[in-house]
Amino acid sequence: MIRIFKIIIILSSVVCFSQNDKNTFKYTSIVKVPDLSFFDHIYTGLDILEQMDFQILKNKNIGIFCNHTAVNRNNKHIIDILNSVDKVNIEAIFEPEHGIWGMDDKRAKLIGSKRVDPVSGARVFNLLKRSLYPPDWIMKKLDIIIIDIQDTGVRYSTFISSITKLFESASDNDVPVIILDRPNPLGGQKISGPLPREEYQSFEAYHLVPIRHGMTIGELLLMVNEMGWAKDLKRVDLKIVPMANWKREQYMDDLQLPWKKPAPYIKDLYTLIMYAGMDLLRGTNINVGFGTELPYLRFGSPWLATKFFKEKLDMLDLPGLTFREVSYRPKGSPYFNRIPKYNGKSCSGIEILISDKKLVKPLETATSIITLISQLHPREFKWEGNGYIDKLFGSNQLSLFVAQKKPPGYLSPLYMHDEIEFSKFRKTFLLY
Predict the structure, then answer these.
(1) Which pLDDT band, with edges at 50, 70 and 90, does 145 fall under?
(2) Beta-carbon neighbour count of residue 51 at 10 Å?
(3) Which residues does 58 contact at the CB level (< 8 Å), separation at least 6?
(4) Contact 59, 87 (CB under 8 A)
(5) CB 162 within 8 Å of CB 132
(6) Fewer CB near the terminus (10 Å): N or C of the chain?
(7) C-alpha–C-alpha distance, residues 249 and 184, integer Å
C-alpha cells in the first residue's frame, strides 16, 4: 500500500505543471503549425516540417533518431528528404531496437561494419545493442537532434526508453531536441494496465504509464521532459512539431497514411492491438505465435487441451473477438534470430479473431488466457525465469493473482485505480 500511495503522490504532482494554455510548458515549446483543417487527411510532424520548408533545420548539423517508419504522406523517408535539403547536414543517425531499416531491408546491409549510411554519409549508432548512450564526441558535433519514429502505443516497446536515454545525453551536451509527432496507432482514448512499481521497472516498463497509454509519442515525451523522468531529473530544450487533423478516436487504419510495421513481428493493426496484451505470454512457457505468421493472434503448446480450454474461454464472453482451435508447428522465426518456444514441435492452440477493434480488451484477454491455462494445466504451466512476467506487467500483481487461483475477471478491477489516476494525470500533456 505504501508503494501504491507513493505512485499516486508522484502522479498528483502534475498540478505543479498545469498551464492556462496547454501549449505553454516550462521546458518544452510546441511549434505553431499552419491551419490545415480544410484538408481531410492527416499531416504528421514530418509533413508539417516539410510545409515549413525545414527552416528550423537550416545551417545545422543534425542527428536523427528514426527507423523505417519515419516517412511522409508520400512514403518518402526522412533521411532521403533531408539529404536533399540545402544547408541541412545529417551528421549522425541513432537507431532503435530492430535497426533503421528493419531486419531484412537491403539498405540495412549497405550500412556495413563501418556503420555509415550510404545515402547521407552519416555515422550510425545503435542505442540498444551496443550502448544505451551515443558517444560524447558525436554529440559535441550536433546542433540539434530530430526524433521521428512510429511508436506502438504500448509500454512494452523500447523506443521511449531509448529516447529517454538520448534525452540524458542531449541534456549533458546542451543539444536541443525536436520531436516530429505521429499518431498513436491504437487511438488516443483507451488506457489499460497498471502503473509500474519501482522495483519492477525495466526497459519494457520504464516510465509510470499503463501498458496501453493512449498518448502520441510527442505527448508522452512531453510528459517525460516536463516531469523530469530522465535520470537525475535531466531535461532538454525540447520542441514538438505536432500533427494536423488527427483525432483521438482514430486508429491507424482510419488514416490515409502508409502502414509501416513498428516492429518486425507487428505486421498489421490487429496484431498490434493484441500485442497490447498478448506480449505478456512471453513471460510464460506458452508459445505466442512466434515461428508462425500470426504472432500475438495465435498461442499454444504441445500439452494444451484446446477443446476444453476453448469452452472455458468462450464462457468468459470477452468482447470484440472470437476463438478457434488450431494446430501448428513453430519453425524458426521470421522476426528474430532466436529459436521460438516449442520449435519444430506440434502445438495445439487457439487463434484469435477480432470482430470489433474498438471493443476488444487485449490486456483482459491475455490475463484471462494465462489465468485459465495455469488453472487447467497446473503441472505444465510455468513462468519464465528471473521474474520476467513481473517486469512486463510492471508489478507482481499478475503472478500473485494466478497463484491465488482466482477467477480471471477479478484481476482488471485491481488496477482500475491506476488507470483512473493516469487518465487524470495525462490531461495536462494532451496536445489533441
Answers:
(1) very high
(2) 13
(3) 86, 87, 88
(4) yes
(5) yes
(6) N
(7) 10
Q: What is the pLDDT of residues 337-378, one digit of tens each?
A: 678 999 999 999 999 999 999 999 999 999 999 999 999 999
d(CA 334, CA 247): 34
Q: What is the bridge-based pairing of β-strands 321-328 and 60-66?
A: unpaired
With respect to residue 296, please indicate whether it lies within any of the assigned structural domains.
yes
Q: Which residue stretches of 136-231 are H helix? A: 136-139, 159-172, 217-227
Is 207 in the same domain as 341?
no
Q: Put the strands of the sheet holding 144-148 in their side by side order.
A: 28-30, 238-241, 177-180, 144-148, 60-66, 88-95, 123-126
Half-sphere exposure of 112 (CA within 13 A, CB side): 8
- What is the total count of domains within the chain? 2
Last residue of a domain, one of 258, 288, 314: 258
- The CATH number of whichever domain residue 329 belongs to comes to 3.90.1150.140
Q: How many helices (H) and strands (E) does the chain have?
A: 13, 10
pTM above 0.90, yes or no: yes
Q: CA dihedral in degrees (268, 273, 274, 280; nearest 10)? A: 120
Compute the radius of gyration of the chain from its Cα atoms.
22
**Residue 253: other Cβ atoms inside 10 A:** 12
- CA-closest candidate to residue 302, choices 380, 243, 229: 380
> Distance between CA atoms of 295 and 335, rounded to whole angstroms?
10
Contact 179, 239 (CB under 8 A): yes
200 plus 98 within the same structural domain? yes
Sequence-ordered strand ranges (E) for 142-237: 144-148, 177-180
Q: Is residue 1 part of a domain?
A: no
In terms of C-beta density within 10 A (0-12 exposed, 13-18 middle, 19 or more buried), how is residue 14 classed? middle
Q: How many CB atoms lie within 10 A of CB 399?
A: 17
Q: What is the mean pLDDT of the chain?
A: 92
Measured distance CA(98)–CA(86) in Å, rounded: 30
The CA distance from 226 to 249, in Å, is 25
339 and 190 co-located in one domain: no
Residues forming a β-bridge with 20: none
Report d(CA 45, CA 65) in Å as an integer: 14
Containing 105, the helix (H) or strand (E) segment is none
Beta carbons of 92 and 63 less than 8 angstroms apart: yes
Which domain, by its residues, includes 321? 269-416
Examine the domain organization and report whether 89 and 171 are in the same domain: yes
Cα–Cα distance measured from residue 64 to residue 393, given in angstroms and rounded to the nearest whole number: 31
Task: Name the 3-class secondary structure at 352.
Answer: strand
15 located within any domain: no
